[in-house]
Amino acid sequence: MVVSGPPQGAPEVEMDSHVAYVLRLGDDNLVLAQRMGEWISRGPDLEEDIALGNIALDHLGVARYLLTHAGDLEGRGRDEDTLAMGRSEREFYNLILCEQPNVDFAHTMARSLFIDAWQVPLWESLSASGDEVLAGIAQKAVKEARYHLRHSSTWVIRLGDGTDESHARMQAGIDRLWRFTGELFIEDEVDEDMVAEGVGIEPPALRPAWEATVGRVLSEANLERPEDAYVRVGGRRGYHGEHLGHLLSEMQWMSRAHPGAKW
Amino acid sequence: MSGVEAPPDIRRAVAAVEDPELPFITIEDLGILRTVELEEDGRVLVTVTPTYSGCPATEVIRDSIIAALEMAGAPGARVRTVFSPAWSTDDITPAGRHKLEQAGIAPPRDVSQVLDLPILCPRCRDAATHIVSEFGSTACKALMVCDTCGEPFDHFKEL
Q1: Residues from chain B contacting residue A130 (CB–CB below 8 Å)
Q2: Which 3-state string (H, E, C) describes chain A?
Q3: Residues of chain A under the 70 pLDDT cut
Q4: A-chain residue closest to B56, CA distance
Q5: For residue B21, what pLDDT is reported?
Q6: Preferred mutation among A32, A40, A54, A131 to probe B, highest tally of B CBs within 10 A
Q7: What is the pLDDT of residue B2?
């Protein structure tokens, strides 16, 4: 397997591991919320439009809790807004999978399936974190992640097992995004520190549950599981693809144009 | 936090605050009001828990609690949000469930018995109902339709 990404080594920006750990999880949810929110008014039907918007809101809520917590841990006075709106692309630590564009409904559901199947065991494990605030957020988030997974897996099965057109698009989404899924299970020094402190979990430990869920859904959907040929990484250290900068420029333009504005 | 329980009239003022999206139901009915305490400086500290993480009503509820306490003669209250233990639809009180049904919303079932209990039509109470969309007008509700009387209705989803 080829793992491609930035050179290995210490992160360029010195950051406390606990802050980095919480910020990474917050950024996953913030970027995902922004992507899901792009569907609003463009959903395939009214109910689905509302569903996508509500799932975006769940991710945004979790992101707000996590960014607030990261800011509190850091102790430099950065709140959720400063962290969301005041950081540039290289200072975001989300998984590259989260920033991938929606493309079409099938691609979006493929991305959601991969994320949801990972977040369910992630939040289950973190519900027992030694960081009580993080544990509380995880206990809340796991309930939501379970119905997100129900939503995305229902659609992947329906489209995969549907018409020739829907099957082809669903398989294309799975194939295109597969190379970003390896990053979900990469462990680095931040994870190691947090496991040692009883705060975090080992990312590879989430893999069996993820494989089982994704395998079951793909098989029921008559979709092929792609080969693990190539893994794209870097997001956890701030190295992103071309898409994140565009996403942030849209998300942040208002607060950058009018710093500190209130209404 | 080392507050003592607030007097009953203060507690009642907070408990009567309505949910902005379901204005016939109070935050006490909904089970999101955890404690109402008096702090050492005499200010009221209210502890609530969110229903859904992204619930847009959270901030409105906080402001409504502060306003209700001002009206009750207790200005300067603080509202604290806790996540643990996480809110469950099992926390909705029997009175809250009754009000939901009166408003045409099928109340959530007991979380541990979701697979065994049918969703009853709030209009004719028939069990022959089916889901139209898992996501209705808000994140917490699914859109259903009754096969017997034809009524489309919201179901408050179990969480």
Answers
A1: none
A2: CEEECCCCCCCCCCCCHHHHHHHHHHHHHHHHHHHHHCCCCCCCCHHHHHHHHHHHHHHHHHHHHHHHHHHHHHCCCCCHHHHHHCCCHHHCCCCHHHHCCCCCHHHHHHHHHHHHHHHHHHHHHHCCCCCHHHHHHHHHHHHHHHHHHHHHHHHHHHHHCCCHHHHHHHHHHHHHHHHHHHHHHCCCHHHHHHHHCCCCCCHHHHHHHHHHHHHHHHHHCCCCCCCCCEEECCHHHCCCCCHHHHHHHHHHHHHHHCCCCCC
A3: 1, 6-13
A4: A57
A5: 86
A6: A54
A7: 57
